[in-house]
Input
Amino acid sequence: MAVERPAVSRPGELAEAAPPEVAPIALSARLRPALVPVLSLAILVLVWQLAALIAGAPTRLPTPGAVLLRAYAELQSGELAWHLGATLLRVAASFVLAMTIGTVIGFAMGRLPLLDRFAHPWLVFLLNIPALVIIVLAYIWIGLGESALIFAVALNKIPNVVVTVREGARALDRSLLEMAASFRLGRRKTLAFVVLPQLYPYLAAAGRSGLALIWKIVLVTELLGRSSGVGFKIGTYFSLFDVTSILAYSLAFVVVIQIIEWTVLLPLERHVTRWRR
Amino acid sequence: MSPAGAASGLGISVRAKRFAAVGAAPPKLVIKDLQLQVPDSGLVALFGPSGCGKTTLLNLIAGLDREFEGRIDLPADWRIGYVFQEPRLLPWLTVEDNLRLVLPDPDDAPGKIAEWLAAMELVDIGKVYPNRISLGMARRVALARAFIIDPDLLLMDEPFVSLDEPTAQRLRTLLLATLQAHPTTVLFVTHNLREAIMLADRLVLLSGPPSHVQQEIAVDLTAAERADEAAIERFRAEVLSQALPEGPLR
Output
């Protein structure tokens, strides 16, 4: 088929997969690694397209183009932005709450063995309660409102943050803490310059896995008890069996989360680890 | 300088320091009946075998470990500069920021940082992160960090260990000059008798474990003699000849 083929190990498939704007032969070796994810995404879209064509059931499995058009239509009507915004606000609130509380508890448990022994069974209990149970109970006990949603989502995430930050607090370098104590740096400076920088890798890990977990739980929570947000829309379209709209909303959300990852989380991570380079 | 420090200096009287049992290891008595006076602006070298609790003793003095029987007398307002065995710089702060961190008053930071970077011959690496500099440079930064707070007491735990000899010697000379310009009470631990003679005005030989003072030897060398290897060698022979049989030098 194509004569131009990317210099990757499986030429047959990739040559077909590569969209015309990807012209690997002309690119320098330095640029190629950056193109691998682009290529991989292109393959994903292509597989989807082929599957949709083979299935031949546009209501069950629409083509990528159809989903994109639907997303555009929803964007034009303002629906998408409104529901996306509602979900993002909930994600942000739950995320901040879970990270703050989880960090404080995790740090305390990592530093105080007695508290750790006491609170560990609670932690194991919370880690193993299904998200659905917490959501349902929060709605029953607190009522179908924003605070119940944010509480339920945060509570689902807090145990993970605690476990990760506790590891970090346990691993604090004793020799640096001694240095801080002998120079009488005081609490504020010790926390800001000695302790927190050692916790950053753990906070980053908790944050990134947290964002992925939280937005999924927010969607379920919206589906169960709210009348706005991406989860609510997906629930509605589920009852209409409108797969195109379900995919359009999912796709929009995935894109937004990825943008947050690239523009906020990754640069932040690069900034706090700049000394390693 | 402290008003009370004029005659008092540092008084150490540790009856016992134990480490609790860890796993199968039994509790360990590391220091027993150790008495030591360090006069104001005195420069005392602690010399003893490995594992005899010298680092532990420095940590007691620095207040890092308060679980022991006995007392450490030093004026409450004394600032302590501690040079650890490893430089213990914060890797996420530049050399300058590592110095800035320990200064209580941010207003006089720029001047002091410049002064100490120059004194320790570190001017070029002020904005560099510690993982990019050599061990010799990192040790100089650690010295600068200890001096920049104008310490009343300087504790040093084998500050020149694991450096090549020319580098170590350069740092000793630098330290000696710095101490002449900024008289400070100094207590330092070393395994190197020549180093102890070159720097200290008193050698304290420790035996152990459990660690206790076995012998004290005054080092009455002039500044010129301290710079002269032959004079140090002569004094070393003399020290070895008067060392007690069960001491660390035998």
